[in-house]
Amino acid sequence: MKSQVSEIKKKIKRLETLVDTSMIFSSILDIDELLNIVLQKAEEVMDAEASSVFRIDEKTNELYFVTARGEKGKEAKEIRVPMGKGIVGWVAQHGKPLFVPDVKKDRRWFKGVDEKTKFVTRSILAVPLIAKGKIIGVAEVLNKKGNRKFNKDDLELFKALANQIAVAIENASLYTELDRLFLSSIRAIVEAVDAKDPYTRGHSSRVVEYSLLIAEAIDSDKDKLKDIEVSAILHDVGKIGIPDKILRKPGRLTFEEYAYMKRHPELGASIIEPIEKLRPLQKNILYHHERFDGAGYPSGLRGEEIPLGARIICIADSFDAMTTDRPYRRKKSIHAALLEVKRNSSTQFDPTLVKIFIRQFERYRMKK
Amino acid sequence: MKSQVSEIKKKIKRLETLVDTSMIFSSILDIDELLNIVLQKAEEVMDAEASSVFRIDEKTNELYFVTARGEKGKEAKEIRVPMGKGIVGWVAQHGKPLFVPDVKKDRRWFKGVDEKTKFVTRSILAVPLIAKGKIIGVAEVLNKKGNRKFNKDDLELFKALANQIAVAIENASLYTELDRLFLSSIRAIVEAVDAKDPYTRGHSSRVVEYSLLIAEAIDSDKDKLKDIEVSAILHDVGKIGIPDKILRKPGRLTFEEYAYMKRHPELGASIIEPIEKLRPLQKNILYHHERFDGAGYPSGLRGEEIPLGARIICIADSFDAMTTDRPYRRKKSIHAALLEVKRNSSTQFDPTLVKIFIRQFERYRMKK
Question: How big is the A-B interface in CB pairs under 8 Å?
């Protein structure tokens, strides 16, 4: 009777873990942090020494570690396991869970990981991660403490956890993929517009790069950096509305032509006007030709009245213009262009951002 | 002792429900179907007569039904509950669960929904849906059967279920939002390119509309329709690479100019070449000027050698060209254009698709 009660208590504890984890899944944004906490819970309830989550890399048909907890977790992270190889490879291939009470006695056991990590695996419980009917990876717990074996209750719990994990991973990667699609698509179209004029080929992409150099030194918040990236890609999108004969004129523009050309920030802002999610970025596009001393266009804003994103893009945009040929002048050397940026600090550019840009650009050049 | 055992059994049953639902969350793609099944489980375990999930509409500060199960579910779906009003409004506002054993005795109770649906609510258990720390909606079960009251065990289970539901809803809506951002962004840029020439203003958007008219009659698969939509938006993206003086020439093109112009499908396909996810759509762009009789360009494909998407876009594109003015000719009436499409069935166009287009277009015109 007593052992029955203790069995039931254990069962309840296991199941309660699932209640706890469902809370974790709804509260944690970062997928790596989430997996780490969920696996920690799994180790606790199942008395395991270590645990990992693998994903399948469909291109190479290998498994790679998404999370590796335990003594040698760090070492494990660089290892890749071929599909079908070892315990996790078997589980990934067959889509079925696997108990391995003693790895030494299992022919499927692949020593490679232990050899590299110096971790000693004794027993394994591995379950497939299945999302929307597709095998996307494997989760495993290693070495049940006290020389015991993983049991059916462990399996049941781990399968349920694996479902939660699979959904979380799948959702995160669907989102990441779509986000990449969004960015790369607008980038491809804008690059095609740039490429129409040999003098501006690659311009918007370089402005993204330079803008991020500055922005990353100010703030590491991913959303803010994404905003800068999208604003920078789109900063010249208004040039779509400028006739070729002005845009590509092989010489100085007349006063009227220049006045037309100066409308491109407003045209750009109006192109993204219908897109609610991009509206917060309109200001970065609209004001990227304002000057710190108030002598820019379209509104003559000055200093910090000019949105930060616009001040950043202004430096990046001008620097790229200086360092590329134009129909009516040759490009400046990088050294001369950096001097020119410095010379225009406080008049055209935000002096704080100029300092950051120059410092960051030097570092970036060294890395290249 | 007996009652203790039955209590424990109940507890285990509740917890096992969570294991089951975690399976459902990892296997069902469609969010409406998913919520329906999860609520059904919740009703079963908690002996409830009905259940609902509400979301908060941030713009209007109202709650609306996402799912409403039970006798009067259908009637409920059109109702909106102001924030703070009624039991669900209170839960949404305070972010706390609420037991209401007898709605008639609770001052917060709002009769409006029952009056509209003719459902008789007696008792309610309502929990907030919280995703990443934000209240996004409310889930409720109604009328515990056998005149009993919802209890603490029900609450514990329902809170855990609510977490799973909140994560699923949040993920689905994040994805939908980003997808909308992707589509609307490329659409805005392409529309700006179209708008540069008054003769093509709105062209790509109309081609999307006409293409979807045809595609929806063939296949209701969302992904396939999305592919057609994106292909149609981008079908002329290659025109970005064609000089204005050819693109906007107010008269017939010379042989050389026309040869240049005919490169736009290839240019379009090459613009999206770097984007892996869009590569399957390249063929729709590349071949949208092929003809059913093999006399089109760039490759002279014929019949069903031409990808379905390209055959669809070809009709939509031509029809829109016929029904809009060009520098060198006036537009045709819709009646004349439809006749022209019919006349070119089997030579220029896929005859099966022509029939579908004409039928669908007539319906669409009637609705307008």
Answer: 161
